[in-house]
Amino acid sequence: MFEFSMDAHMHFDLYENRDKVLEYIESKKSYTIAVTNLPELFQRYDKKYADKKFVKIALGFHPELVAEYKYQQVLFHQLVDKTRFIGEVGLDFAGASDIEKNSQIAVFQNILSWCTNKEKILSVHSRAASKEVISILDGFNGKVILHWYSGRIMDLETALSRGYYLSVNHQMLESERGRNIVNKLPVDRILIESDAPFTKGMKSKYTLNFNEKIYLYLANRYNQEIDIVKKRIKANFAEVLNSILD
């Protein structure tokens, strides 16, 4: 059977045994984008884990942390040329005040301006703010991955028309809304993520078992052999990375 594991969005640094998590990923040859929530965290871990072949540390600034750590925009700008991988960034308007929303928008706009013409790969958060995220992204010329998308279908259609990718996790398949979103995705725009440790079964231990659950669902959805789906997902990720995967 054709084997291919990937994780387009996970938080390795939120595990206490992060070294073992990364060793596990490397041993499984699982292509992984390990996002961070703050620039200072990227700075700390990028140097430490620069030798990893399959794990790419992403420079992030989570929207929920913008209000408290807004001063770290300066550090983000200083670090932005050190990596192609940017995430987790975006907007989260769930429970946010108008002041917080405005701060998030300003920081996200700044991040995009710093990433212009740099062949960046963005993993973007858009909870309760899909309209605003899609609007702000208009004209951005890097690669965009919408992570755990839960927004409006009309915004999803716009995203797909622009060639954005969506990273799908196993927990999305457990709700009607999540399945409805996944079912609207063309197979050539799908990546796989865990969003570990925030998804079910991932809080205490990181495992790649979620890959098979999603492959099986997609194989049934597209009425294809599971190996065909795996090869398509691998091709998608290779296109995002603009490289040939082993």
TrEMBL record:
Residues bound to a divalent metal cation 2: H125, H147
GO MF term set: hydrolase activity, acting on ester bonds; metal ion binding
Superkingdom assignment: Bacteria
Binding site for a divalent metal cation 1: H9, H11, E88, D195
Keyword Cell membrane among record annotations: no
Residues annotated as transmembrane: none
Keyword annotations: Hydrolase, Metal-binding, Plasmid
SUPFAM superfamilies: Metallo-dependent hydrolases
UniProt keyword annotation of Transcription present: no
Family, per entry: Belongs to the metallo-dependent hydrolases superfamily. TatD-type hydrolase family.
The protein's name in its UniProt record: TatD family deoxyribonuclease
Organism for this UniProt entry: Sporofaciens musculi
